[in-house]
Amino acid sequence: MQFTEEKLGQAEKTELDAHFENLLARADCTKNWTEKILRQTEVLLQPNPSARVEEFLYEKLDRKVPSRVTNGELLAQYMTEAANDFGPGTPYGKTLIKVGETQRRLGAAEREFIHSASINFLTPLRNFLEGDWRTISKERRILQNRRLDLDACKARLKKAKAAEAKAAVTP
């Protein structure tokens, strides 16, 4: 009831400390930017939306995400197979083997980068959103409820004092 009366402008609202309001605004800003950075980093590391959904489901089911071959590794495999078809002794075959090996190393480095970025960058962001932010939200709701209770008590006290003053005036 207090909340509704405050929204309608019929009840007084106890204002929070300006420094605390600033902290709340900074917390909201941090949460919003963390969510955006997390989502965009996931898109960068895995551009395929269906693969991201699959990885998300594996993560939520606490299962190990199956290892995917990177595009560089797949290209390396094709080049090596082509080199074997052309003959490893031919100039084209030798070139395909060299380039294929380089692509394989690039693909392995990309896989390592994705793994490292996921563990060292995305995990702390997720931990903030799933842990710290939930705690902040819960404490904010508790504070809001306590403030509403305080304001309701203040309103009742004000009404009681007004009724007492009115009773004292009219004997």
UniProtKB/TrEMBL annotation:
InterPro entries: AH/BAR_dom_sf (IPR027267), BAR_dom (IPR004148), Endophilin_SH3RF (IPR050384)
SMART domains, A to Z: BAR (SM00721)
Cellular component, GO annotation: cytoplasm; membrane
Keyword Coiled coil on entry: yes
Subcellular location: Cytoplasm
UniProt record similarity statement: Belongs to the endophilin family.
Keyword annotations: Coiled coil, Cytoplasm
Predominant location: cytoplasm
Pfam families xrefs: BAR
Protein's UniProt keywords contain Phosphoprotein: no
Residues covered by the BAR domain: 5-171
GO biological process: membrane organization
Name of the protein this chain belongs to: SHLB2 protein
